[in-house]
Amino acid sequence: MTETDAPRTRHGSLRKIRLAASCTLAAAIAAAGIVLTATDGQAAVIKPLPAPLSGYHLVKTFTAADIAGPAWNDPANNPGGCPPEPARISLTAQGAMMSTTGKAGDCVQAESPHPYPTAPGYVYESEMYVSTFRNWADWWMYGDNWPVGGELDIVESTQDRSYVSYHYGAANHTVSTNPWQKGLKALSANITVGWHVVDVAFGSHQISIYYDGHLYTVIKGSYVTEAPAWIVFGDGSCQSPVYSVCGSSTDLGVAGNVKVKGLRAFEK
Questions:
Q1: Which one, of 150, 216, 161, lies nearest residue 192 by Cα?
Q2: Contacts (Cβ under 8 Å, ≥6 apart) of 6
């Protein structure tokens, strides 16, 4: 993938990608300003993708320096409402780090400079560290036309555990492994505080999420869109002590950080 900056705005409206219904995948990717190319010198199958994900080739690697760099540290207008905080995104020996105090409204997010494909046959893999599940550490993806374009919360944490959630439709419907919501079943152990390898595999109206090589949950249904998605890593996005999704106010004021060693994109 070649990084080409898409137009960005800061005041209210999400960026738009107008794609004709008859567009092929290649045309849709081109319209999003994305070019896919195989990484020079890479074998046809790159490990350590989970065993069920065979036959994929690496098409793009985002290093920790990429994620900590200027192209990623200006998350304008994502649905989380987190303002740019480049001074609190740093490159460390363990990866790109986003640090927060956990106070109300205190959030730091790194966002891709434009959306990437979520059509069947794409996998995204990150190696990431979460210091606490008390201040909304996250890895998520969302389509331009939010929430109709979908929002996938791959790692979304509060109240001492992580959840997988998918939001969709004009009414912002949700399915989740979160007991406050419903519809997704945990198929293996949840992640804990520490380092983990997380994979997201896109199929036809289906998303499979793997934690440390084990299938954790599957999201499937006609509501699962294939819209190109922005990729976001962050920490500490609770807006106020009474914001319902944040749960107990005891989760506020807990300092923490998220580190990302890198992100890899694969295509089948």
A1: 161
A2: 15, 32, 33, 113, 114, 115
Burial 225-238 (b: 16+ CB within 10 A, else e): bbbbbbbbbbbbbb
Q: Indicate the DSSP class of residue 116.
A: B
**DSSP letters spanning 182-194:** -B----SPPP-SE
Structure tokens that stand for 254 in this block: 């807990």
Among 205, 234, 188, 223, smallest CA distance to 81 is for 234
- Of residues 220 and 158, more confidence is placed in 220
Residue 211, pLDDT > 80, answer: yes
Question: How far lies 45's CA from each of 24, 39, 213, 268, in Å?
Answer: 25, 12, 16, 9
pLDDT in tens, 136-191: 889 999 998 899 999 999 999 877 889 999 999 999 999 999 887 889 999 999 99
pLDDT tens for 85-119 read 899 999 999 999 999 887 777 889 999 999 999 99
Q: What is the set of domains in the chain, with CATH numbers? A: 55-267 (2.60.120.200)
Q: What torsion, rounded to 10 degrees, do the Cα atoms 7, 11, 12, 15 define?
A: 0
